[in-house]
Each structure stands twice: as C-alpha cells, then as structure tokens.
Design a protein that fits this description.
Shape: globular
Structural class: alpha/beta
Largest sheet: 3 strands, parallel
Strand order of the largest sheet: 1-2-10
Order of helices and strands: EHEEEEHEEEHHHHEHE
Distance between the termini: 24 Å
Helix content: 25-40%
Number of helices: 7
C-alpha cells in the first residue's frame, strides 16, 4: 500500500515537511484554513515597496533556512543592528540584545517552569526594563507574556546563541517569495495544496 501523508497547516513547518515528503515520492496533502500559505509569513506589495506583515527577518545562521533561500535563488541583505527607544522627546540607543540576554540569563533551567510574567515578578528589574522585555517577547516570539513558558524562552535563547541569532538578514524579494518557491516545488512534486479548507474533525 502506497504511503500518504496529510499535513494540517500550511505554515513554514508544514511546507518544509511537505517538500521533503514529495521528494521521497510520498503522496502529500496540505490543508490550510486561510486562503494563503506561509503562516506568519505574509508579504504584501504597495507599489514597488514590499511590506512584511508577519515574519520579517532571517535570524542568525540557520543552515537549513539559508540553503532553501539559496535554492530558491533569492538574495538577502544584512540588517544593521541598531536599536533605539524614543525617550524624553528623542531617540536614544538601546542595547536590546544585551538587555534581553541579561534577563534570560537569570532564568534557571533547573527551576520549575512558569510564565514570563510570573518570572519577571520574581526579579528585581526596573519597570522600564520589564516593559522592554515584555515588548521583545511579544514582538519577537509572537506570544503573550502571561502564557509563554520561561523555560521555552531559555531554550530558544540558547539555540539562538548557537546560530548567532542576533545577526539578522532580510529576504530582498520578500519572505513571501520563499513561500511561493516551496508551494511551486510541492505542486510540481505531485503534492496537493488545499487552501481555504478548515479541518473540523
């Protein structure tokens, strides 16, 4: 009996899995509730400008991601790492990665897990530092600080350090171009892409 796989969700994980499966000759179908693929990646065009409404950066040196970008013949450009905060009517330099690193370094992997909000309540960081940390987690990790696991944040930080996660690139043609490349490869390999289809059971 021939193997077949059904993937629920056409975000990057689903697309990457489907691409591997169709290359192995496995009949693969992606079911996606939205009318587009890519998950958090959503690039729109306004005239000649590309606007990233979701994921924007290639963080660090993920060999798996960079090799797919290369296969898709897309180009990247380095994003200048300069963070600022607007205070007292002017912009001031903000050492964001250092600040976030200092906070995450206080997380003890041996301690019982808790939400990031609960973790901050146990620390002595000033209110401004806590505000920046919460905005970072909500923006970078796309998670509510009242719900995200502190231990998960620590593991993500360790993984980011291992691949130099503070280095950032941008896909010149827009992240959506990578989604279109994967979509085309899956379709050409015989995979089925069902958009606008919600799984209920």
């Amino acid at each position: 009996m021939k193997k077949s796989v059904l993937i629920i969700g056409g975000g990057m994980a689903g697309l990457a899995a489907a691409r591997i499966l169709v290359k192995q000759g496995i009949a693969t179908t992606i079911i996606e509730a939205k009318d587009r693929l890519g998950g958090r990646i959503h690039t729109v065009k306004d005239g000649n400008a590309l606007i990233e409404l979701g994921a924007e950066f290639v963080h660090g040196h993920s060999q798996a991601l960079l090799s797919v970008i290369q296969e898709a013949k897309l180009s990247t450009q380095t994003v200048v790492s300069r963070n600022q905060v607007f205070k007292h009517g002017k912009f001031e330099a903000l050492p964001l990665w250092q600040l976030v690193g200092d906070i995450f370094n206080q997380i003890d992997a041996r301690e019982k897990d808790c939400s990031f909000d609960e973790f901050l309540e146990q620390q002595s960081f000033d209110s401004e530092t806590q505000k920046i940390a919460c905005e970072f987690v909500e923006g970078f990790d796309a998670a509510h600080t009242s719900r995200i696991s502190t231990q998960a944040l620590l593991r993500a930080e360790i993984a980011a350090e291992q691949m130099e996660g503070s280095d950032q690139l941008r896909v010149v043609e827009g992240y959506g171009a990578l989604v279109r490349f994967l979509e085309k490869e899956i379709a050409q390999g015989g995979g089925r892409l069902m958009k606008g289809t919600r799984v209920r059971q």
